[in-house]
Amino acid sequence: MDKVSKLQKQLDELVELKDEYEDLVMLAEQNIFKTEMEIAQSYQDFFTNKRNTEFVLYDKFPGLEALKLYISKISTEFPLYEVGSLNAKELAELIKHFYQFKRGAEYDILTIGATELYEEPIYVCGRKSLLVEPHMCFIIGNDKTLAPFREYDGQFFNEHKVYNSIFLNARKKDLISIELDMGWNLPKIDIECLTGSYEDKSNQINFFDYEKNCYTSLEVDKFKDIYNFKLENVPYKKGCVGYQGIQDILDFNINILDSFIAKMLISITIYKQNNNIQELTSEDYNHIFDVLYGEKVDIIGQADKDIPKKLVYVPNEKHGK
């Protein structure tokens, strides 16, 4: 066989081999896609396909890789997001009691409000627009972890420095800060803050907007969805720690050493889903605590006692309002 014919034969064999490999790669890619979809679906099914109408505490959950596939293949909304809404006061009380039963110590709930001053990426008259935004939170912890925040309890501070102190530092073991949702035309929580101005609106959070030079108010939502609305950001948490576990899918920070709180709250929303419950009742809470600890707890009544209905307004030092 002459050299050209020999080389041509080798070329034909290589082309044939390449076609075979391309077929194998295509088949592998198809199988990879199918398997990834199955994992993503299994992640969703883990939360949505449970049918037990009795309360069950779930302790093991799918991991980070399954979460990433669920987000990329199915949805950026957590599977239980639609049933994740809990009465905000009762949520704080639940967390308080979960801590107490688990740690065998007393925990408290602080109710605090503060304004935040931040820059919008919009220029007005040659400078960035500054906005004054109100925040309300419940902080649950023990004597030690709540010590830096107790002086703020039961008050609404029209101060950015207070906002920084609370919302940047209230994150550690034995401490959970839940920020409430604000907006218009919400089912309102029964917490009021009055400034003393004739412009005050009852049953709302009133404050002086020192950037707009006027009094204003906002309603606070009675409910809080415990799940992170921007689920696509969860696997890529900022900082060196990164994703640590199922507690990271919640809409508030929970230390990894307090992950039992997240597992209990997720289990409660599965119970809500399985029983088509819109809002938990005293009977539901008693059932949950009976299963967990063999006791009954008046979550609704205790929340009413622990959380004030009125906050004392503390004016901005610079503006006196």
Describe the structure.
It is a single chain. The chain has one domain (64-314). The strands form three sheets. Strands 5-3-2-4-11-7 form a six-stranded mixed β-sheet, with helices on both faces. Strands 6-9-8 form a three-stranded antiparallel β-sheet, with no helix packed on it. A two-stranded antiparallel sheet has the order 1-10. The termini are far apart. It has 321 residues and is of the alpha/beta class. The model has no long low-confidence stretch (mean pLDDT 90). Strand 8 (205-209) and strand 9 (214-220) form a beta hairpin. It has eight helices and eleven strands. The chain has helices spanning 3-48, 64-73, 88-103, 143-146, 160-169, 259-274, 282-293, 299-306; strands at 85-87, 108-124, 127-141, 155-157, 175-179, 182-183, 192-194, 205-209, 214-220, 223-225, 310-314. The protein is globular, with a radius of gyration of 26 Å.
